[in-house]
Specification:
223 residues; alpha/beta; Rossmann fold; 7-stranded mixed beta sheet; 8 helices; 7 strands; 32% helix
Length: 223
Amino acid sequence: MNTSSNSSSSLNDELKGEAIIKHYFPGITSNQLQQFTQLQNLYEHWNSQINVISRKDIDFLYEKHILHSLGIAKVIEFKQNTNIMDVGCGGGFPGIPLAILFPAVNFYLIDSIGKKIKVVNEIANSLELKNVQTAHIRAEQVTGKFEFIISRAVTEFPTFYRWVQNKVSKKQFNNLPNGILYLKGGDLEEEFKEFKKRVLFYNLNDYFKEEFFETKKVVYLPM
């Protein structure tokens, strides 16, 4: 999935909706494109009832939420039967877009707020995503093990690490060692100082040319 994105900014300025996904992930199938296309109407519908995305962001759903989530897929292409837990998934990010992109990978989306899990369930059911399971639960209460744990800036990283440090499987079969993949932006030096000898930062503006990604990163901590 780590495709080149050396396209002109003028082209990217014209990309709207699901076209931006097709541009950066040209290998997706027609069924996957249809699923990505459905997300706008689904999120507009459910967001009007249960607010899971800020009102000002719903018009930028594909760039600020879907493509941002798929930044993880520029770092690693998960292999079949990989088990992934999305902690604090909110309305389903990054888990739902990644579940569309990787239909042979198992995703477990959790959140401590029940109404957010309701939205995730409804969207996953509408898209007929068979590889998504959900739970209204806190990360500390989860007993399973996963090859990777993903999240999008749900809390400060040292706190997040304590929540999930014992939930990473020892079974290795992906191209990267098992661990945490964390979407975060801004200056991260202080937040990650205790992990600086192990952590790797992938700048998303190396893959996506939109201004939104200028300071956004995928933070990878092998476990």
